Amino acid sequence: MKGFVFHGPGQASWQDVPDPAVKEPTDAIVKVGVVTICGTDLHILKGDVPEVRPGTVLGHEAVGEIVEIGGDVRTVRPGDRVLISCITSCGRCRSCRDGSYGQCRGGGGWILGHLIDGTQAEYVRVPCADLSVHPLPGALRSEDAVLFADIFPTSYEVGVLNGHVRPGDTVAIVGAGPVGLAAIATARLFSPERIISVDLAPARLEAAHRLGADAVADAHEAPGQLVDDLTNGLGADVVIEAVGVPESFELCTRMVRPGGHVANIGVHGRPATLHLEDLWARNVTITTGLVDTHSTPMLLRMAAAGRLPTGQLVTHTFPPENMEEAYDVFSKAAETGALKVVLGGERYEVAVPAA
């Protein structure tokens, strides 16, 4: 089969790789129908995630069809259309029992495309399948469902819930990429007074406005002043960092009000300065986190009911064999206007050998 293989910083290719096989009785083999690229994949290619070894198939988001299961799998069977979660959960360890699946101590957590071969391939082995794939309702298109493998639960859990967004809040979201835009959509579920989106790319700010941001600001044009103007100098109740660079994190800490929350989502490859000399007396809460995906079933139900704007996030589609082109388009989002890039789906029926 084919897969997109990481060879080291700046090097990856769509190439022949061995077919996956069931290794544990809790495994499932999934024929990938729709897959997407995450900003974290770009961080891996930059060398920001050194745990990823050369030779690893990338990707941790996909929708596909179960083709084989181990003897202990009970919740899915061959032929089922499923969402592959970005997080694998053993369901038995202390973290999983607490619902902190991202911190799984039983061989799970974020492993696909990180510690083991991932989803950017024709087939993928999914460990702990009973808790790590989600059967999909027929009403939800695969191209829409794939957005719930990562960006929607990440924005909702690590951004909106960790930030304690409440009715009447002012919410500032720094970064209008896919996760930042999903944060706008999920923050709106809590009826904030206003949402302010900050980014460098005009196309992304336009997308933020379409998805419900009440105000947008160019990151180079004093967004903190806009926040002050809209809050009478108080600052935002919640600031969500959805970029992953030191400058954006430090901007967030400057825009939050005393007693407010900074919720960091972005994947950081470089140190950021925490200005405790300014923050220590302001009662500011700063949270970080890897998504747990405990909200995925609920978000899928809301998507099937038409309560979340999925179609507006997908800007480019490709056949799977154009993976390298898709990465190039996604990595140059400022030039291409790319938000979420999807490979496969109804438009591209892929004929692959049976597992």
UniProtKB/TrEMBL annotation:
Classification via PROSITE patterns: ADH_ZINC
* UniProt keywords, alphabetically: Metal-binding, Oxidoreductase, Zinc
Cite the GO molecular-function annotations of the record: oxidoreductase activity; zinc ion binding
Q: Which InterPro entries match?
A: ADH-like_C (IPR013149), ADH-like_N (IPR013154), ADH_Zn_CS (IPR002328), ER (IPR020843), GroES-like_sf (IPR011032), NAD(P)-bd_dom_sf (IPR036291)
**Superkingdom of this protein's organism:** Bacteria
Give a yes or no for keyword Glycoprotein in this entry: no
Recorded protein name is: Alcohol dehydrogenase
